[in-house]
Amino acid sequence: MIKSAMNPDLIIQIGATLVSTELPDLIAQSLKSNKNSRHIMVHPHHPAERNDPSFTLTHKVSADPVEFLGSVLYHLKCLGADYNTLGSDLLPIVSLGRALGKEMPSIIHSSSILPPEDQKTTA
């Protein structure tokens, strides 16, 4: 029900390719139904990455998302935007993402190590 009621005119994607299968479909549907819609991705450019498998991006901003959003917030404040309306309940996720980003290599490594009884010895 919510999905059918959504008709965004601006979609800002923070970070690389979306893992979900529903979100890319929702974005594609939004862009088809509203020809003035824009899909912007904010992510540091890496030539080997395939950032737009659905071909829905209308703009790419190659920047660190935290710095980019800080700059946007600063400019909005300079234009007189109310600080209380610029916040988001999702802001704590940024800190969580940073912490997980630093820890993720060790988490992946530790989960891929077999217990001693499962390791095969080659002698």
What is the CA-atom radius of gyration, in angstroms? Answer: 20 Å
Overall number of strands: 3
Sheet of most strands: 3 strands, parallel
The CATH H-level homologous superfamily of the domain at 2-82: TPP-binding domain
Number of helices: 4
Poorly predicted ranges = none
* Backbone shape: extended
Characterise this structure.
With 123 residues, the chain is α/β, with parallel strands linked by helices. It has a domain at 2-82: 3-Layer(aba) Sandwich (Rossmann fold). The chain has helices at 2-5, 22-33, 65-78, 91-112; strands spanning 10-14, 38-42, 59-61. The chain has a three-stranded parallel sheet, with no helix packed on it. The longest helix is centred in the C-terminal third of the chain and has 22 residues, at 91-112. The mean pLDDT is 78.
Indicate the topology.
Blueprint: H1 2-5, E1 10-14, H2 22-33, E2 38-42, E3 59-61, H3 65-78, H4 91-112
Parallel strand pairs: 1-2, 2-3
Using brief descriptors, characterize the structure shown.
4 helices; extended; about 120 residues; three-stranded parallel beta sheet; Rossmann fold; alpha/beta; single chain
Briefly characterize the structure.
42% of the residues lie in helices and 11% in strands. Strands 1-2-3 form a three-stranded parallel sheet, with no helix packed on it.
